[in-house]
Design goal:
Helices cover 25% and strands 24% of the residues. By secondary structure, the chain is α/β, with parallel strands linked by helices. Strands 3-2-1-4-7-5-8-6-9 form a nine-stranded mixed beta sheet, sandwiched between helices.
């Protein structure tokens, strides 16, 4: 995938892989997200996006679109297809991104700098308080930079450091929409000695589309219950806990 618009020298070794999905039949913000991510000055950015829907991907996204899927296929099944095509050893971070967020300026550089500073192997940006929010725990807390937590949500944006690639990838397709991952991850992270956290200083806005607008809540929830029944995990109440705040 092209990263020609990225001003970072090819000699730099720090690379980040962004994998995202945009809906071709719906309004989306991919046309603004992709250039913002590509504008990083600290990272070589490789973006690989999936166009999901009957309409053809727009020409302006062709250079970063590596798959067009007309039929609805679960999110993490599609992401696994992309990850299967790349050598993850080339990347320091993997960032998963939806198409309906608004990113602040210099997002990637600021977000990954703080993730690295606080050694978060699994992380997410907080959501602005005017966003659609499923779990109030992830809403931005003003006055702190970041918090070490037991909870990182599966979207709309999250990241893995390379230290967890071998333990957390590929994504488990027994819950292909990802529901339940964020209760299994903290159990595994604690067992393996990895830190997780939320970056409050670089929040994203998520208000273009409400959650679960394009798939069945009941089906995803039933799948999650079956998935969790077979795996050690935390309850949502015990996961949504701040272990340390960074002011």
């Amino acid at each position: 995938m092209s990263d020609a618009s990225n001003p970072v020298s090819d000699a730099m070794q720090k690379s980040v892989l962004v994998v995202g999905i945009y809906l071709t039949d719906e309004d989306n913000n991919a046309g603004r997200i992709i250039p913002e991510l590509a504008s990083s000055r600290d990272w070589r950015v490789d973006q690989r996006w999936i166009g999901l829907g009957r309409n053809e991907p727009p020409p302006e996204l062709a250079s970063v679109t590596c798959l067009h899927q007309a039929e609805m296929v679960p999110k993490f099944t599609l992401i696994n297809r992309i990850l299967d095509q790349v050598d993850l050893s080339d990347y320091e971070y993997l960032v998963i991104c939806d198409d309906d967020v608004e990113l602040p300026g210099q997002f990637l550089d600021r977000y990954l700098a703080l993730s690295g500073q606080y050694h978060f192997a699994i992380a997410q940006p907080a959501r602005t308080n005017d966003s659609y929010i499923d779990h109030q725990f992830v809403a931005q807390l003003h006055g702190i930079k970041a918090r070490r937590t037991r909870f990182v949500e599966i979207g709309p944006v999250f990241s893995f450091h390379r230290s967890v690639f071998g333990s957390f990838l590929p994504f488990d397709e027994e819950s292909p929409m990802g529901w339940g991952y964020d209760l299994v991850w903290p159990h595994l992270a604690n067992r393996m000695g990895f830190d997780m956290g939320i970056i409050d200083a670089v929040p994203v806005s998520h208000k273009m589309r409400p959650p679960v607008a394009n798939y069945s809540y009941d089906r995803a929830n039933s799948t999650m219950q079956e998935y969790l029944s077979k795996r050690a995990h935390l309850t949502l109440q015990s996961a949504c806990y701040i272990l340390e705040s960074h002011v």
